[in-house]
Amino acid sequence: MTVGGLSLAESLAWLGAFFAALVIVALIVVWRGRRRGSRTIALNVTLTASSWLIACALLAIVLGTVTSIASDVISFPTELLSWDAASELPCEPAQADRTTPTLTCVVPESAHVTIDGAPLGLRTLLAIGEALTLVAITAPLAAIAVMASRFKAGTPFAPGVVRALYISAGVILVAGISGELLTGIGRVLAVEASLPAESTLVPHGIQLTVPFLPIGGAILCAALASIIQHGAKLQRDTEGLV
User: Fold this and answer.
1) What's the predicted TM-score (pTM) here?
2) How many domains, the chain?
3) For the residues of 56-77, what is the DSSP string, one character each?
């Protein structure tokens, strides 16, 4: 989540408002649970929060995809373009006698570009990449919701929990990596298509990133699924001894 404002105080205020809303929702769930004498208040909060976040993510996926495809203007940050914006401020060596913060070097490494008249194919490619990234973020929330509902029902080792974790691991791995790659490829194609061949801004090198976070998330979900699967086996063996 990204918040912005005209000043640091305004940005922090928006961020505080977001967390305040989360706290209010959690307090309402806790109050209702205590009023009903529930013994699974923490699970209720987890299930409610994950469900709300899943709904917000699905809404963002739908709205983002429709908006990206419908508009022929695309805008995104990119490191493909660079320019000599720091020619008037050459980098200076550090000095030990400075007593106040001093800007000594500016190296522009990225730009935010806006491209008008983008073809439908590029818009669709970027929309798919961004949607897959959101799907990868939503997958663990879905697994958490399934786990919380099963734990509330008193069946923490149900096969559905293991299945949800393994599915989440696959979705995180595939959607997370492919979303990042498709977004990167789409931005490269958009920049190259919008600049004439003789332009000095044409990128001289292309870098595509394979993120490690989806790999780590997939491994974590798969490991947790394996642990729960082993716990289910121990439970069956224990029940057989009784």
Assistant:
1) 0.74
2) 1
3) HHHHHHHHHHHHHHH-S-EEEE
C-alpha–C-alpha distance, residues 52 and 18, integer Å: 13
In 3D space, the residue among 215, 169, 49, 217 whose CA is nearest the CA of residue 161 turns out to be: 169
Confidence band, pLDDT 50/70/90 cuts, at residue 215: very high
pLDDT reading at 105 higher than 60: yes
Q: What's 126-190 look like in SS3?
A: HHHHHHHHHHHHHHHHHHHHHHHHHHHCCCCCCHHHHHHHHHHHHHHHHHHHHHHHHHHHHHHHH
Would 139 be classed as within a structural domain?
yes
Residue 228, in any domain of the structure:
yes
Whether residue 130 is contained in a domain is answered as yes
In a domain, 31, yes or no: no
Q: Using CA of residue 110, residue 116, residue 120, residue 124, what is the dihedral sign?
A: positive
Full domain range(s) for residue 194: 39-84+108-241
| Rg from Cα positions in the chain | 24
